[in-house]
Design brief:
2 copies of one chain form a homodimer. Chain A is an alpha/beta fold. Chain A has 2 domains: about 70 residues, Ribosomal Protein L15, Chain: K, domain 2; about 240 residues, Up-down Bundle (Four Helix Bundle (Hemerythrin (Met), subunit A)). Chain A is built from 10 helices and 12 strands. In chain A, the strands form 4 sheets. The first copy, chain A, has a 4-stranded mixed β-sheet. A 4-stranded mixed β-sheet of chain A has the order 4-3-2-6. Chain A has a two-stranded antiparallel ribbon with strand order 9-10. In chain A, helix 8 crosses helix 9. Chain A starts with a strand and ends in a 13-residue tail after the last helix. In chain A, about 40% of the residues are buried. At the A-B interface, strand 6, helix 1, strand 8 and helix 2 of A face strand 6, helix 1, strand 8 and helix 2 of B.
Chain lengths: ~325, ~325
């Protein structure tokens, strides 16, 4: 199987006769066996000559560019290339066919509720008080979970998820136990208190993280299954983010508040609503970044992978599902 | 109206703050007003940095690369900014549904043959001799045209189009009447004579021109209808180019040869095949550019539009067809 090459260093990609090498800004060369390369993802400040691009064209290798902030910027598509038209057709097929769409949407919701349950279980075993409340909510959520297979529409699924999520958020006060961060109720655009400001900020980072990883697959972010009621934004990333928000965002919030790394001084009041200050955002993404590169033991692979990698693996699973290779099973955290 | 930039020299494309310049290999700089640029065609040995490509992405400018021999090599396609999940779903739907796909493919072929017929009619009225031959071919092509509604597969359509095109090309000798440019037969990769070299070069420019315009719509170039037997290249641009090749490329070729703007000295023989020289390419794209910004009276709009604009309007028509707003009718030139 051909490989994807990721380049994070700065330097120049060069051709030498029939081979390919990368020369970094200190002049060190790394040979890249061109016949093994499927595509190249460029994150560093990398220069290319036309001669090099012609070579990529001959070898039908796509170059994907990401800007300084890690956002996808564009692709050099050789005249002939594997352009993933087949994946996009399958994605559309699964959207157009109501049964297929419902099946995928249900899997995302199942994954989402299962992850929320894992988060609650984790805190139940550690909480100084409120275990009973957590236990009650867990019962209710497991009950909602058992209804999922019977949902007959996306709306029904969404409402079941909504019930679970409401119960789940209601426990944030039990888990956090900090008067500076009451949950009250979920408020967005704008968030009306600090905890909601954190949830909104964290979720938006989670969406863009998944989006970045989608750009590294053949999937098209525009076609989602659960979140496709309007077409004003990418939606597949919202779907897949459901699986990761509880462990990636919510647990980080609990951690940052409990460790007092974020306090009320990290928030600014605005005419309407409350937002994380610049310093607060810095702390949040700094800590998130640490977690994203943290490795967790992967159940099936039998080895440790980073959270970021976990998201990519999840997307590959969705892709396999769409291509009919293997039914998608959402990731479940073990702890 | 935004312009196409053609670069034949060797050097480097660079960004400086919010502007763009080309520095040739002797160090001379040429400022390029970025806000006026539609797309850039690179023929020379031009280097680009990632920083420059990020800038192209921000400004939504496509870069088309041609190799040393003038063959199309690939395109830097900035990240899609027009994010239209609903259009791509419709595009996929029209591909997946055999009837829908056949209908669109048929329309492209109808448009293509109708345009070839218009070109022949134009030259019939001006030819010094051979009117009879042209008339015979027109009869045959009209006959092929009448069979199109009965075609039951893409392959059948393709073969009907193939017959018409063969007859059409056979008349190039009658139209051109220049011993330096015999048609002989259609040869590609490599073209085996001068006329074929011109057709190949012109067609590849036409494909990339349509690709640049697709980028400015909600359409996805990966899903075509006529040219979608595999996903190894962009195909929607190939479909739509069928409508424009006869008027944009073939008529330009006749003009350039008849006006003796291109003669045999503008071609280089290579180990296998014959190609336009750099000077020849320069003349070709220079004249094409004039035509692309030339305005023609638009039948329905009742006003004059440029050829480039005409291509965009054609794409909007395809988009409307896909969205079920209005059945697509291919553009027909009046003269």
């Amino acid at each position: 199987m051909k490989k994807t090459i990721y380049i994070f260093q700065s330097g120049e990609l060069k051709r030498k006769d029939h081979s390919l090498y990368f020369e970094n800004s200190e002049g060190r060369r790394k040979h890249i066996p061109v016949e093994d390369v499927n595509d190249i993802y460029i994150f560093g400040e990398v220069d290319v000559s036309k001669r090099f691009l012609d070579f990529m064209s001959q070898k039908q290798i796509c170059l994907h560019y990401f800007n300084y902030y890690g956002y996808y910027s564009g692709t050099f598509y050789p005249r002939e290339h594997l352009n993933a038209g087949h994946v996009i057709l399958k994605q559309a097929e699964h959207y157009i066919n109501d049964d297929h769409r419902l099946r995928l949407a249900r899997l995302f919701i199942e994954g989402s509720i299962a992850q929320m349950i894992q988060v609650l279980k984790y805190y139940k075993s550690r909480a100084k008080s409120g275990q009973e409340k957590i236990e009650q909510t867990l019962e209710i959520m497991k009950n909602e979970q058992s209804k999922l297979p019977h949902a007959e529409s996306i709306e029904e699924l969404m409402s079941q998820e909504g019930h679970s999520r409401e119960r789940y958020y209601a426990l944030f006060d039990v888990i956090i136990q900090n008067k500076e961060f009451p949950f009250e109720k979920r408020s967005k655009r704008p968030p009306l208190n600090r905890l909601n400001a954190l949830i909104s900020f964290g979720n938006s980072i989670c969406y863009t993280t998944v989006l970045s990883e989608i750009y590294k697959t053949y999937l098209d972010p525009r076609i989602g299954y659960l979140h496709a009621t309007n077409f004003r934004r990418f939606s597949l990333n919202l779907d897949v983010a459901e699986i990761f928000k509880p462990i990636m965002v919510d647990r980080l919030i609990f951690y940052l508040i409990n460790k007092k790394m974020l306090t009320k001084k990290h928030f600014d009041g605005h005419t309407d609503g409350i937002l994380l200050s610049e310093e607060g955002r810095r702390i949040f993404v700094g800590e998130l970044d640490k977690r994203m590169s943290q490795t967790v033991k992967h159940r099936h692979l039998g080895k440790s992978v980073s959270y970021r990698r976990l998201i990519r693996l999840e997307l590959y699973k969705v892709q396999k599902h769409l291509l009919g290779e293997k039914k998608y099973e959402p990731y479940r955290t073990l702890w």
